[in-house]
Amino acid sequence: MATIELTKDNFNETLAENDFVLIDFWASWCGPCRQFAPVFETASEQHEDLVFAKVDTEDQQELAAGFEIRSIPTLMVVRDKTVIYSQPGALPQEGLEDLIRQARELDMDEVRKEIEKQQAEGPGAAEA
């Protein structure tokens, strides 16, 4: 599957209609972004069952700000409308493949239970 361009107009729809989305936040002037682009594209060709998307942080400043993107490239993985990974930095091919494997293996029911538990405890509970 080809990599799709995400904008504020298609972002929510893309995440709502797909269970597993990898998002590359990037900019054309960013050297590490250009280095990561072929790695991301290769993975998109190898994992046709997943959605690979790119957000141009220059054109989509509202989206980048909404996700508090402070450093690019930032890779975000969303499963079942839940962000399960978001880290800046260009991964090598092996690193991206390992991340995809780990994301596939996650038990999303357990992830949701953990999120509910943290929300129930409320802010500041971790410091107590």
Which characteristics define this entry?
128 residues, alpha/beta, Glutaredoxin, 5 helices, globular
In which order are the strands of the major sheet placed? 1-3-2-4-5
Average pLDDT figure: 92
Instruction: Work out the radius of gyration.
Output: 15 Å
Task: State the share of residues found in helices, binned by percent.
Answer: 40-55%
- Number of domains as seen in the coordinates: 1
CATH architecture classification name:
3-Layer(aba) Sandwich
By DSSP (H or I, 4+ residues per run), the number of helices equals: 5
User: What structural category do the secondary elements indicate?
Assistant: alpha/beta
N-to-C CA distance = 47 Å
Largest sheet: 5 strands, mixed
How large is the share of residues in beta strands?
A: 15-25%
Topology, number of strands: 5
Task: Specify the CATH homologous superfamily.
Answer: Glutaredoxin
Query: What name does the CATH topology carry?
Result: Glutaredoxin
CATH structural class: Alpha Beta
Give me the strand/helix succession: EHEHEHEEHH
User: So what's the overall shape?
Assistant: globular
Protein name: Thioredoxin
Keywords: Disulfide bond, Electron transport, Redox-active center, Transport
Domain Thioredoxin: 1-105
Organism: Nocardiopsis mangrovi
